[in-house]
Amino acid sequence: MSLTALARPSRALRLRLTRQLSSFSIPVIDFAKFRSAESPEGRKQTAKDIVNAFKESGFVYLKNHGVTPAEVQTVFQKSAEFFHLPSDVKNGLAWEDPRSNRGFVKVGRERVTQATDPAEIAALREKAPDYKETMEIGRDWDSVWKNQWPSETQAPGFKQNMLDFYETCHELHVHVMRSVAIGLDLKEHFFDSKIDEKCHNLRLLSYPAIKTSLLKNEGQARAGAHSDYGTLTLLFQDSVGGLEVKNPHTGEFVPATPIPGTIVVNVGDLLARWSNDVLRSTLHRVVAPAEKISETESLTPARQSIAFFCNPNFSAEVSCLPNCGDVAKYPPVNTEDYIVGRLAVTYT
């Protein structure tokens, strides 16, 4: 047998490697097995399952997560009511500053991307803006940066429902981060003191219906391919769909089809950085599922989602964990500096 033949993988091995590279899935994990486990072994196994998924795809679906269907339904309803307000009311609450990251963002103002050069992002925004509008909400007791709230007359119950949901999502974030700590062989409460200032961002998203032909520009999407900035993102989807996750092995985008009763949870850049890239912050985008309305035209239906972007404390220094590799890939970074820097080049 020649040396060339010896060096060449067998057909069976090639097929196995091909399957490994092309297979990509987002597992559904029962989080009740962590929060209500009867034994430490059960909690640890669920934690390991979550961390393994974050290593492979960077995404999981969580079921039995503790956020009630009634809470989710109410927030979607209040979000829809907000986006149906007159434009002059919404524009009066406009997003103003990346250090605040609060307020209303009209269609076309944001362009999410992995690019960091302001001129490049401006060109992308001009060519293919994200076709969505959002409302950004932060912690409400901040002494410097204030949330932009519509009046109670304009949007009854909006403020209180969003503040309650903010707290609910923060609590879930704490529990998921505890599972991450256990799965990485850290002490369970390792992250607690690093996320307790609740420096998060609750984002309400509305994707208006649009003729599909208007979304055909090169690079155009409901939201362009990007990774998130913080520790985790908790995503609540409606039934329309459109979220796609990039298979890191093949470069193909795979639909993250909505599963009733679940939350999509994905790793953000700062958690990937904290773990020295042991955990994967995966590119994802929102595309335009279309419904044919004539022989020559299709309509992309309206879509809603709610994203809770979880962050470390803005005062926290994120340094590669010593048990995640021998050599740190990244220098330490301050959370606020990192996130504000990313936001500053994303908006006009």
UniProtKB/TrEMBL annotation:
Keywords: Iron, Metal-binding, Oxidoreductase. Gene3D superfamilies: B-lactam Antibiotic, Isopenicillin N Synthase, Chain. The keyword Oxidoreductase applies. One of its GO terms (molecular function) is oxidoreductase activity. Pfam families: 2OG-FeII_Oxy, DIOX_N. Belongs to the iron/ascorbate-dependent oxidoreductase family. This is Fe2OG dioxygenase domain-containing protein. It comes from Hypholoma sublateritium (strain FD-334 SS-4).
